[in-house]
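Input (Xylulose kinase):
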Amino acid sequence: MVGRSSLPDGALFLGLDSSTQSVKATVLSNELIIVASETVNFDSELPHYKTEGGVYRDPTDDGRIYSPTIMWVEALELLLEKLKPKINFSKVVAVSGSGQQHGSVYWKKGSQAVLSSLDPGKSLVSQLKDAFSTMDSPIWMDSSTTKQCREIENAVGGALELSKLTGSRAYERFTGPQIRKIYQTAPHIYENTERTSLVSSFMASILVGCYASIDETDGAGMNLMDINKRTWSKVVLEATAPDLEQKLGNLAPAYAAAGRISSYFVERHQFDKNCLVIQWSGDNPNSLAGLTLNTPGDLAISLGTSDTVFGITAEAKPSLEGHVFPNPVEPDGYMVMLCYKNGSLTREDVRNQCAEKSWDIFNSYLEKTPPLNGGRLGFYYKDHEILPPLPVGFHRYIVENFNDASSENLTEREVQEFDPQSEVRAIVEGQMLSMRGHAERFGMPNPPKRIIATGGASSNESILKLIAQIFGCPVFTVERPDSASLGAALRAAHGWLCKEEGGFVPISRMYVGNLEKTSLGAKLAVPAPEEEGRELLKKYTALTRKRMEIERRLVEKIGRA
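Output:
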């Protein structure tokens, strides 16, 4: 068995994460210990773009949310400058990365030549500012492509057929519907596009100095890839836009090398000319790697700008909700995922309105209010929600007859508002009940053996305690809440090892028997509920059923799908 000795002494592995609100870096040593990290926040450190939460919301086009492509380029430059005093770039033997899933970039004709001849004496921004056929990158928060989703589904025989083919039914944020919208509404942009990249392959392209492939895992978030064959699906490509395959390029496994780092970074930042760039992938797949999630009974909950629930499975069983992607670190396996648009920004909104803009007050309210919140149940959608497909709106109910945990006896009445303390508990409790209800419906483990929590809000002990109570299992956390950049650094090391050994090797070979001595080990944050907690769990089970019932009625009445 090959252990840690497979990674060369003194080597560094750089993981980057280009997310919605920031770019982050995590650097691992050859012993898989974090030696440096850095962040650039878009709103505060690049204020000239005037983004809010890293994005623009188009007031003239309902649901259209996008980011300025060039901002990501400038953020990468600033991140490397901030990281430079902390590490010796010449010691980095491999770099990989994570990109917010589904976001897309449109390189205009002739840009490959620009990429391959970057002048190390000039900034990236000055050389790439004219390289795009549109300066706007649609991102995962966008919900303006409902029409295109239905058209693509209808063309392939319906939503379930598309899900069986690509791993997901058509979702507005997915890249295929976004490309179709550009083709239909701005044909000149589509015509002038030489290559369409995902955020992940876009950043990798800059690092290698040519168009990098889209990896198979992030490629599954486009509604364009055959999930079983892991090739572009001809039938879906034809339903999306003409001549699309040549604009997408080839797919590659997530563990493959995209190439060696461009001479631009060798000369400008003193990277070693042999430094490998490993395929970038999506942020959730990278988190799966960073959390070393490799047991089918485990679930991960990522609490970030979006909230996601994900796990692993040996076989693909796509359905009408949720997503199936290839596992980024196990070529024969899959990851399953649920995604919620209303995550941290919506929690922050409630904090600002009800808790004096203070997380300390927010947490004290969460601690003061009793579990089950006196039957107060809230649905909070600051943005059009993905799961369930409901429009912007807030719905509050009080569930009665709650002493009997049989859901048949539960009745509810709608109310206009809750008091501030109950509102705080209602947003968090409501989000977790929704996760549990949809995870069970999707066939995820119930209860899970354990949950590993990650993302910014995973450092909030009050929220972790609530997760344990609602799901009825222990909750673990990892050393760093930004598991995407950590996963990218781990995947950089894994990709380097695969290249060194001439083919795929299991990622666990880098840490087997040694996980606790690395920066990768998960630690118990909240134990599984005791006897008293099991009674509470029964009531949460009834409340979950009630919530799903109310949600179904809301979708039938006002849903977008």
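DSSP finds 20 helices and 26 strands in the chain.
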